[in-house]
Automatic annotation (TrEMBL):
This is histidine kinase. It comes from the Bacteria. It catalyses: ATP + protein L-histidine = ADP + protein N-phospho-L-histidine. Gene3D superfamilies: 1.10.287.130, Histidine kinase-like ATPase, C-terminal domain (3.30.565.10). GO terms for cellular component: plasma membrane. InterPro entries: HATPase_C_sf (IPR036890), HATPase_dom (IPR003594), His_kinase_dom (IPR005467), HisK_dim/P_dom (IPR003661), HisK_dim/P_sf (IPR036097), TCS_sensor_his_kinase (IPR050428). It is an enzyme of class 2 (transferase). One of its GO terms (molecular function) is phosphorelay sensor kinase activity. Residues 218-403 form the Histidine kinase domain.
């Protein structure tokens, strides 16, 4: 969820709570004021009643008092209580509806006899007034809330516009480009400081990227040249007839170590180049056809180990990869399947439009399968391996949005390469 949406939700929820509390408080205040006015009028009529009784020393129906507004009845003296205001309902004799009244009950002696006096005043108009005031208040508060929310959304959108502009430019920013990151200056201090920091960071990252790229390129050239020279000279020494058997063994050990160092250097440099995104020639590659071709190229090795290749018919698995990395990915997968296979085993290829799997027979792993694709992780007894082959495969898959997984069941190892989503890799 976007920050602006989250902020608006919190603001809306807070405003609703405040407005509801305000509406309840306003309703109670209006009700209190109206009831206070009604009770004041009832007290006035009480004084009129007492004045009438004092002047006439009696009570009789008087045109001064409206029907159903006052009721006087004799009661025992011991039942007298303090005056009290209550709400009551009285049925209208004309339309047979219950009408709300506010009632004042008090006790007064008339000609020496205690009487209970109930003076009532209709609340129907008062209730209608409260309803009108309440509806009006709710409408105005609702309009105020909607207007404030709309204004807040528009204002927040304008205030956050520099941030979204910065975010958009950061998404389009490419470390490999020589163009520095440029962010529009903002009148808002926080966004202006953020842009300055981001521009400095981007500049430093571009500089570090160029330095690392130059290092890998220089290392690739400068290290391979002396290693190739060492290998060539060692090969000449091995062919010399003047060496003793011991010297020949020593030189052969040096030669093997030099070749291992060369392969290790190539593997590490390849990983660095992949991580730095130095492969730009991305193309559509049919990995299924390429994998079958790699197995055909390894026919002599397969025949030597008596490994049978099984191809399960299916749709071609096509992805977007630099051809050189596709070759490296498949070569490492095939080499791994052959190296860790058993004599008279088999290799099976299964392909679909979204996934490619390569299975091979072989003993169970002695290490944790979760570390299979880590760098320098190799099985015991794999002296010729550096543990970089599957790490290179994983780095290629991660960089080009391909899924990579491993499964083992009944002495069969299977590595799956698939699309993370139908459109992720094909863009």
């Amino acid at each position: 969820m976007k920050l602006l949406s989250q902020t608006n939700r919190i603001y809306l929820a807070f405003s609703l709570v405040i407005y509801l509390l305000t509406a309840v408080a306003f309703y109670q205040i209006i009700r209190f004021l109206i009831y206070d006015e009604v009770e004041s009028r009832l007290n006035v009529e009480k004084r009129d009643f007492e004045a009438y009784v004092r002047s006439h020393n009696a009570w009789s129906s008087s045109p001064y008092f409206v029907e159903n507004k006052i009721e006087v009845m004799p009661v025992p003296a011991q039942t007298a209580r303090p005056e009290a205001f209550t709400d009551t309902l009285i049925r209208n004799r004309y339309d047979d509806e219950l009408i709300p009244f506010r009632q004042l009950t008090f006790y007064a002696p008339i000609r020496g006899v205690m009487h209970r006096v109930e003076i009532r005043k209709s609340l129907i108009q008062t209730y209608r007034l409260i309803e009108v005031i309440t509806i009006t208040m709710v409408l105005f508060l609702g309009l105020l809330l909607l207007g404030t929310f709309w204004f807040q959304s528009r204002l927040s959108g304008r205030l956050w516009l520099p941030f979204y502009d910065t975010l958009s430019r950061l998404k389009r920013f490419d470390l490999r480009s020589s163009t520095p990151l440029y962010l529009q200056p903002s009148a808002i201090t926080e966004f202006s400081e953020l842009n300055e920091v981001m521009q400095k960071m981007a500049g430093k990252m571009q500089q570090d990227y160029r330095s690392l790229k130059e290092f890998t390129e220089n290392a690739s050239h400068e290290m391979q040249t002396p290693l190739a020279l060492i290998n060539a000279r060692v090969e000449q020494l091995i062919q010399s007839e003047q060496l003793t058997k011991t010297q020949t063994n020593w030189i052969e050990s040096i030669y093997q170590a030099s070749r291992r160092m060369s392969r290790l250097n190539q593997g590490l440099l390849l990983l660095a180049k992949i991580e730095n995104g130095q492969f730009d020639d991305v193309q559509h590659v049919d990995l299924t056809a390429e994998l079958i071709q790699r197995l055909a190229d390894m026919e002599e090795v397969l025949l030597h180990k008596q490994i049978v290749v099984k191809i399960i018919p299916g749709d071609a698995f096509k992805v977007r990869l630099p051809p050189s990395l596709a070759d490296s990915l498949l070569t490492n997968l095939v080499s791994n399947a052959i190296r860790h296979n058993r004599q008279k085993g088999y290799i099976q290829v299964r392909s679909s439009g979204n996934q490619l799997s390569l299975s091979n027979t072989g003993p169970a792993l002695t290490s944790d399968p979760a570390t299979l694709f880590d760098r320098f992780k190799k099985e015991a007894g794999s002296h010729d391996s550096f543990g970089l082959g599957l790490a290179i495969v994983k780095q290629i898959c991660d960089t080009y949005h391909l899924g990579l997984s491993y499964h083992y069941l009944q002495e069969v190892h299977t590595i799956y390469v698939g699309l993370l989503s139908p459109d992720t890799n094909m863009r």
